[in-house]
Amino acid sequence: MSNHFPMLKALLLIVLYFFSELPFLQAQTHIIPLSNAHSHNDYHQKEPLFGALKNGFSSVEADVLLIDGELYVAHDKPVGKNNLPTLEDLYLKPLSQRITSNNGEVYPNDKGVFYLMIDFKTDAEKTYQKLEEILENYAPILTKWENGKRVSGPVEIFISGNRPIETVSSQKNRMVSLDGRPSDLGKNISPELMPVISQNFNQILKWNGKKEIKEKELNKLKTLVKQVHEEGKKLRLWASPDHQQGWMLLYSAGVDLINTDDLEGLSEYLRTQKNE
Q: Do residues 94 and 48 make contact, with C-beta atoms less than 8 angstroms apart?
């Protein structure tokens, strides 16, 4: 028996290492989620979804295309053979596995919502019809509306891009909400239907993120933040200056979801702010 002990020990170490490398089983107790961190075009990251989770993000963005009856994650249709990952494989299955391993939560001991923003790049109605079909398999982890009443889950999906606005608005039973625009403000649209208002940063401000922002421009941003918050919604600005000075402006102005491609940089900045 003693002769075999080193071999058994080595085998045990290999097995433990293998399981520790499975993303949804990795220890996560040290991660404190950041409610205002949004991973822009997350599928472009080296580790889609898992990079955002490692950095404590509470919102990720995935563009989808309906191709031959399946939803694939990409911004543009491929030329030639399709080797794109599916929405299920890249996001829904891993999230479901993670939530199961964390006793019903995306982050252990945290009841906060995790946003999955799905940006439709193909026909709104046909893409939504396929998404509804897929989401039936993930209903237990999703925030949904049954007979018009909200049933909270650890993941909330909202649709951007080619939005099936009329269809979703008319549904009493649904598993998604909608991404809004500033033009949707003041129309008595419930935050239950439209939890987030998004806009291109350059449509709001001329500031390039290099010099000090002018007071007039800063007030314009604060006014938009106030309007969005008065309706109980969150604000997200895409194409914003993606560095510390830009994050500082958005954070101080009260922008709820700060858009970034630099996951580690934004995570470090936001944690510094929380510790001050």
A: no
CA-closest candidate to residue 236, choices 106, 71, 58, 88: 58
DSSP tag of 86: B
Residue 182 corresponds to which tokens in the numbers above?
A: 């500033």
3-state helix, strand, coil split of the chain in percent (to 5) is 40, 20, 35
Q: CB–CB of 206/235 below 8 Å?
A: no
270: amino acid identity, one letter: L
Quote the pTM value: 0.88
User: CA–CA separation, 155 vs 164, rounded Å?
Assistant: 20
List of residues 6+ apart from 10 with CB closer than 8 A: none
Considering Cα of 44, then 47, then 50, then 54, what sign does the dihedral take? Answer: negative
Tens digit of pLDDT for each residue in 194-213?
A: 999 999 999 999 999 988 99
Amino acid letter for position 121 = K
Burial 11-48 (b: 16+ CB within 10 A, else e): eeeeeeeeeeeeebeeebeebebbbbbbbbbbbebeeb
Torsion angles phi and psi, residue 145, rounded to 5 = -125, 120
Which residue type sits at 27? A
Phi and psi torsions of 149, nearest 5°: -105, 135
Asked if residue 42 lies in contact with residue 61, where contact means CB atoms within 8 angstroms, the answer is yes
Distance CA 116, CA 5 (A): 48
Which pLDDT band, with edges at 50, 70 and 90, does 20 fall under? very low
- At 33-52, the pLDDT tens digits run 999 999 999 999 999 999 99
DSSP run (H or E) holding 63: strand 57-67
CA distance 131 to 178: 14
